[in-house]
Write a structure and sequence with these properties.
By secondary structure, this protein is an alpha+beta fold. The chain contains twelve helices and twelve strands. The strands form three sheets. The protein has a five-stranded antiparallel β-sheet with strand order 2-1-5-4-3, with helices on both faces. Strands 7-9-10-12-11 form a five-stranded mixed β-sheet, with helices on one face. The chain is rod-shaped and about 175 Å long. The two termini are 90 Å apart.
């Protein structure tokens, strides 16, 4: 059945019909002529029939042979075209003829070569694009006009998965009015920017907040034939940058405040002296003492700021040598014993190990650390309470360390403030006025920096109304 529907079958049937018509026409005209002009008409008629049958058979046979020779190259062309359709772009026709079929084969091979080169170039560009996207550390996400995700890199895919796991709050009408029907595939933080990009047709930049993270988003429309076909968004995590910028602003504000306060007091009391407001030498001396104390406090602030700046720049000058922590703790204890008696505070120094040596440490810096911690403890511990200094030799994380705890029974630190007490100018008790020593708010930041420069660690634990315990661990061996 397939043969008769093919081109060869149809042509063969056509030739058979034509030859049959010719023979029948000749027979109708020749047979009466033979009967009237030949005596042995029967033999002649038989000869004519035999000749007609032989001619008919040979004609149809050669027609079938010729059509088969013509259609075989066509079958090869069809098979080659089907192979290219399946992606076998290296397929070629091996037909060497000088007729139209040969020209068709040559054109087909040229077209296949051009197509193969084009596909190879496209695959090469696709590979380059894929490599570029994979190598980008920033998430890249491409959307079509309906908001469906078309392309993304590994970082973008990870970001989308993490955002999909979040439980979003109910959207507001102003931010996500574009949700219905068109932007369901766009993550919620990007929908407003996606809508603006499609409407305006220009680049848009914005910072989006997702939980505790801040992302900088740059979204650009994708054009094809001067029509917007979608958008591409490049995201960058700027959480740390925003945090540092906030710290910088807070730092400048705090420094300005801390310096402005003593300067204002010095200016006010000095003007009082110049105006002769002191009625006696005692009052003059008192005003001068206030000016002197404020000058010292401002000097301490500037010194602490310079120390922190040097530490941040990596210029901490540590004169390391073996340090006998037992002697250092005894010296600290004697230094604060007088102050403890004046404040009616019990001060204890407990050494759980007899030999407490650090093989590589700066004794002066460690004394500064302990002095600062004890100074904080005394300022926040009321009379009748106690402060303990506890030292021991321990094994932590497979290395030998000396652990020193400074415990007090002071007012304590709220749990929500504990993670921030080592930040600059941070004060847990916002209502507390400056104590007798005039703290600068930088002491614990300096303490943490010094401890970490020794390869150690410092932490704090506190219960409001019960007291605070600062724990520092210092490695025994040289780091």
């Amino acid at each position: 059945m397939n043969f008769w529907r093919s081109l060869v079958g149809k042509l063969w049937v056509t030739i058979i019909c034509l030859v049959a018509v010719v023979l029948m026409t000749l027979g109708l005209f020749l047979l009466p002529y033979i009967d009237s002009n030949f005596a042995n008409s029967g033999a002649i008629k038989r000869l004519f029939m035999y000749t007609a049958l032989i001619g008919f058979s040979m004609t149809t046979f050669f027609a079938l042979f010729l059509f088969t020779k013509i259609t075989q190259p066509m079958h090869q062309v069809i098979a080659a075209a089907d192979a290219i359709r399946r992606g076998e772009y290296g397929k070629r026709l091996k037909l060497v003829t000088s007729d139209e079929i040969g020209e068709l084969a040559t054109s087909f091979n040229h077209m296949a070569a051009e197509l193969e080169g084009t596909i190879r170039s496209l695959n090469h560009e696709k590979g380059l694009l894929s490599s570029v996207l994979r190598s980008m550390s920033d998430p890249v996400i491409t959307f079509d006009n309906e908001g469906k995700i078309v392309l993304t890199n590994p970082h973008g895919q990870s970001l989308l998965e993490s955002w999909n796991d979040l439980k979003w709050e109910q959207e507001g009408e102003d931010d996500f009015e574009y949700v219905s029907g068109e932007a369901l595939g766009v993550p919620r933080p990007l929908r407003l920017l996606f809508r603006r990009t499609l409407q305006d047709g220009g680049d848009h930049n914005s910072n989006v907040h997702v939980r505790q993270d801040v992302w900088s988003v740059h979204m650009t429309p994708l054009y094809s034939d001067n029509q917007i076909q979608g958008t591409v968004a490049v995201l960058r995590d700027v959480t740390e940058e925003v945090r540092l910028e906030k710290m910088r602003r807070d730092f400048l504000a705090n420094v300005s405040h801390e310096i402005r306060t003593p300067l204002s007091m010095m200016q006010g009391y000095s003007e009082a002296l110049l105006d002769g407001m002191a009625s006696s030498p005692e009052e003059s001396s008192e005003l001068v003492q206030v000016i002197h104390d404020e000058a010292l406090r401002m000097g301490r602030l500037v010194k602490d700021l310079l120390d922190l700046a040097r530490m941040d720049a990596g210029h901490t000058d540590l004169h390391k040598a073996p340090v006998n922590m037992t002697e250092l703790l005894e010296r600290i204890y004697r230094k604060f014993s007088v102050r403890a008696k004046e404040r009616d505070i019990e001060l204890h120094c407990i050494k759980k190990s007899s030999e407490l040596w650090l093989h590589d440490a700066d004794e002066d810096k460690l004394e500064q650390v302990l002095t600062n911690l004890l100074d904080n403890a005394f300022r926040h511990t009321p009379a009748g309470k106690k402060i303990d200094i506890v030292a021991d030799w321990i094994i932590y994380a497979n290395r030998s360390e000396i652990e020193v705890e400074v415990r007090d029974e002071g007012v304590g630190i709220p749990s929500e403030d504990l993670p921030f007490i080592f930040e600059r100018f941070y004060k847990a008790d916002k209502a507390r006025v400056r104590g007798e020593s005039g703290g600068t708010g930088l002491g614990l930041a300096i303490v943490k920096n010094i401890v970490e420069s020794h390869g150690g660690h410092i932490s704090a634990a506190s219960k409001l109304g019960e007291g605070t315990c600062f724990t520092l661990r210092l490695p025994v061996e040289k780091q």
